[in-house]
Amino acid sequence: MWTYFTDTDCDVTPALAAGYGFKLISMPYSVDASTTYPYVDFKEFDSHSFYDMLRSGVLPSTSAISEQQYIDYFEPEFAAGNDIFYVHFSAAMTMTFGNMASALASLKEKYPERKFLEVDTKGITIVSYLIFREIGDMLKSGRSVEEIVEWSRTEVDRYSQYFFADDLKFFKRSGRVGGIAATMGGLIGIRPIIHMSAEGKMESIGKEKGRINAMERLVSYVEEFGDDIRNHRFIIGHTDAPELASELSGMLKEKFRELEIEFVVTNPTAGSHCGPNGVGVAFHSIHR
Fold this sequence. Notes:
By secondary structure, the chain is α/β, with parallel strands linked by helices. The chain contains eleven helices and 14 strands. The strands form three sheets. The chain has a seven-stranded mixed β-sheet, with helices on both faces.
């Protein structure tokens, strides 16, 4: 029997996880000396209050969960005779998966007959969310874990994410985006355009002056790289910017008729790096 896991950095909520039969690993963020675990320390994410806190000048930090925490998540399943399948955010972005590997090495010595399989979405937030939903649907339709892992070897790289940040100070502080220094400049109102690479890293690929230009740039990427987008989920994610998300939706629907769009608010851990008022898209693509 398989036990399924995912994590909060994939923008998955407890209700969505439960709907697909997944358990949810919480990825923390810290403000001053206080560390918060989403959906453990609170039941509902008050996104407006969280992003207003960032607007007021607070700069949260994030940290890896420990080897022991992974053992606490996984050992009860192995002890019960269950195998584990984990759909997670990009291993290239954090030390947390090194801790997971150490935990699994320890557990394998104790439970050598147990299996652990994973899909690295090579993303975070909405592209990970999109891949998670596709995998959840496949599991519900009867596809095996092994089939899904094989599917992921080629298909993960056919889901793309592009977004812009509204305030560079959050990314500058986090250091999580390759090439961000090239976008800094001295101009007010510059929005860096960022995507998730095939290596699973956030990379700055340009900059735009103003939100409208930034959104038009996102639409151009959908036009250039989108593949059969009307027959796949299309996600707009935002960091407490519903009006911008709605405006971007209108721009997309004007160009791509009958496009079904789902809106997702970015989880607080990833949002700690992005800051408020950012918007992005995730969609099925010809490549990353």
